[in-house]
Amino acid sequence: MNNSYNKNLKQFARSNRKGGTRAEIKLWVELLRNKQMMGYPFLRQRAIVNYIADFFSKELNLIIEVDGLTHSWEGRAESDIKRDKTLLELGYHTLGFNDGEVINDINNVKRAIENFIIDFEKFIPQPPSKGDI
């Protein structure tokens, strides 16, 4: 995986971290901060290429986007598809949820993220156990 961090967006990402939608804050507090999600660390508002990812796990190559009302505006869906395609070409996977899913059905959001991690771990070579060395 190449280094896709965009330091030119650092200040913008930092200002986004100071805010956040109700859904983003809920997802962060209830599932993602402090390695709550199956032991994996996540970062908030991470600048990757020309995008600001809502949440990012370097270990999982996973970006989680929480889309509010603005993502239903004309032209926004096309830009989201382009973003996801670009990120996939760089080796990142994107999981997207809308605000309502996070606010009203956080358990299903949790299951979706856990299922991604379970599938991801199936393809990660595990280090040998001490008895195998």
Quick rundown:
The chain has 133 residues and is α+β, with helices and mostly antiparallel strands. The protein is 43% helix and 19% strand.
* CATH-scheme architecture: 3-Layer(aba) Sandwich
Say which CATH homologous superfamily is assigned: VSR Endonuclease
**Overall residue-averaged pLDDT value:** 83
Strand content range: 15-25%
How would you write the strand order of the largest sheet? Answer: 1-2-3-4
Largest sheet, if any?
4 strands, mixed
> What's the N-to-C terminus distance?
28 Å
Unreliable stretches (pLDDT < 50, length at least 5) are none
Domain DUF559: 8-116
Protein name: Endonuclease domain-containing protein
GO molecular function: endonuclease activity
Keywords: Endonuclease, Hydrolase, Nuclease
Tell me about this structure:
The protein has 133 residues and is of the alpha+beta class. The protein has one domain: VSR Endonuclease (Endonuclease, Chain A), CATH 3.40.960. Helices cover 43% and strands 19% of the residues. The protein is built from 5 helices and 4 strands. It has a 4-stranded mixed β-sheet with strand order 1-2-3-4, sandwiched between helices. A hairpin with a 2-residue loop joins strand 1 and strand 2 (51-57). It is globular, with a radius of gyration of 16 Å. The mean pLDDT is 83.
